Amino acid sequence: MPGSTKTMGVLTMGGLVVVTAYTVALGSNGWLWFGWVVLGLITLAMVASQTS
C-alpha cells in the first residue's frame, strides 16, 4: 500500500474517532457523519485503484 493510501486510511480512522467523540459529547451532527462517509468512500476508491 503506497504512502498516500496509508495516510488516507489513518485520516479516515482518526476522523471516525473524532466524529464519534463529538457525537458522544455534544450529540449527533449529520454533516460530520456525511463528511466521514465521503472520506471513507474516497479512501476505498484509492485502495481499489491500487489493487487493480
UniProtKB/TrEMBL annotation:
Protein keywords: Membrane, Transmembrane, Transmembrane helix
Superkingdom of origin: Bacteria
Chain ranges passing through the membrane: 7-25, 31-49
Name of the protein in question: Integral membrane protein
